[in-house]
Amino acid sequence: MEPSFRKIDLNKVIQEEPLEILISEDIEPSGIVDLRHLFTYDYESYAKKSQGLGQTATPASSSLEAMPVSAIAPILPVPPIVGNEPPRESVLWKIFGVFCLLAISAFAGAYYNGWIEFSRPAELQSDPIPIALHKEPEIIPEPQIQSEETKTITLSISEEPIPLKTSLEEPKFSNLIDSEATLTKTVDEIFQEGLLFEQEKRYTEALQKYQDVLRIDPSYSKAYYRMGYVYHITGDRSNASLRYQQAIETDPNLFQAYNNLGILYLEDNNLSSAHHHFSQAITLQPNSAEAYNNFANTLKKMGNYDEAIHSYQKALQLRSDLYDATWNLALIYFHQQQYQQSRDILLPLLSQNEVSFSAEIYNLLGKISNQEEKLEEANSHYEKALAIQPGFLDAMNNLGITFTKQERYPEAIQKYQQILEQDPQYDKAYNNLGIVYAKQNQWAQAISNYQKAIQLNPNYADAYYNYGVALEEQSQFKEAHQQYVACLKRDKKHYRACNNIGQLYIRWDIEPERALKWIEKSLEIQPNFPEAHLNHGWILSKLKQYKESGEAFERYLKLSPDKNNEFVKQALEKIKQYQIQKNHQEALKNYLKILQNRNAKSASPEKPNDSPPKDSKKIR
Length: 620
Hints:
Low-confidence stretches: 1-86, 117-175, 177-185, 601-620
Number of helices: 26
Order of helices and strands: EHEHHHHHHHHHHHHHHHHHHHHHHHHH
């Protein structure tokens, strides 16, 4: 019987394994490889040997088992014999089969580890295998706007309502530039397959493809960049940073790698490195709105607000629908207390159908109205935010704040309890619930809620501050001082804590210079803090610096015109009287001093002088 052979379709092999293989010269026109001359045996001689061992040789099918492509190149030396096929259960046949399997496994392992590579024959290199090209659209993720960090109200020594604490929230940047808008003809098919896996979120397979690309071409910068991007979005920050750096080393002009590496540094609060990489990205690609937006976020975090505003505006000039930049620009105006500018930016966003964060916009509009003491308008904005997103805890929390300012304490308590039912770990609700009880002089309940807030968030500076206020109201001054210090350890720019430490020294009536230092530090952080100007006036009057004391009281009255400040006005009048008396005393001293000098001069002998005296005025 003519042995049957299995033929291998070369085209199919190349399609399934995108690597080039070493093939025999015996290629049929149809692209089929004939392997018969590679594997033939002398079945007759083998049969005689088998009969000598008492075995019966029976013809059998001689079709070869399917072999992997990687086993084609190394041809095993086999004695050329012709005859009948030995039985498969033959010991020698089994030994041969085991030997082949071991050889195949060893060769496959060597290829997988990169110890050997295939190359196309020279006569075929001029006709490369065609690559199916496609144009990948630029991937720009929709802005994933996080809820802005809720600003909590804080109590001070003054019993007047205190505005919401403002602090810059974490920047909303345009996430990662994912730009492979065009694939040139030189892009390898393996890299293209990696991009397809990445779009399908099959990240492990995508990484494997990019590794295959780098195994073939270690200088392929885009493969490093894509690997960095995959590691970045999957949370492997160390590998993401490493791959971005490798991408920059192999291609210093790859601006996407600079941008995304800058984001990693910004997230780690390494602002100088973030600033450098975003600047480099802008230099390489001046028309990248995303890079300008991220650069502005860095500037804002560094406190360079004017430059940040300029960069946000530049980003919006390049791309008017970059809503991240619009949102961030509104935020920075809000934190600079330029409320009308912030409102003017936010309102047009509500008419944009593409905007997916309308609830956040209404929440920020509510905070603007709250700062302007338009409490009913603020409530309306918060309720609109909750109508769009019923579980929006920040809006619920801010609604509770306006209820507190309106002295609608039962409604505020109910709102905070609703928040804690949905999220028992929401520390701001405990802090603000403590404020509601403090407003009603229920200090035990207030302290209990402050302690819970601190337990959930040991770095919650406002909770330490409010805890100190409650202790001070209970005349536990030493313990209050400890809480204010703990607050400043978490937030060095907490101007209210600085003011209250200074006020404690005023209460103790000791070391007025130290009290003055803390009050002035509070004013250095926040020059428009009325309570600090009030305390500044008192401590200066105690130090008998009446002129400076009067100026401090006048600044307080200017910043707080609507408060009942009769006692401050009376104090200011007394200080003016002291100042007048002091001026009279100084004038009298100067007069007596001049008189003494004149008398001394007239009593001393003078030399004859024909010239008129320099001072001809007489003392009367």
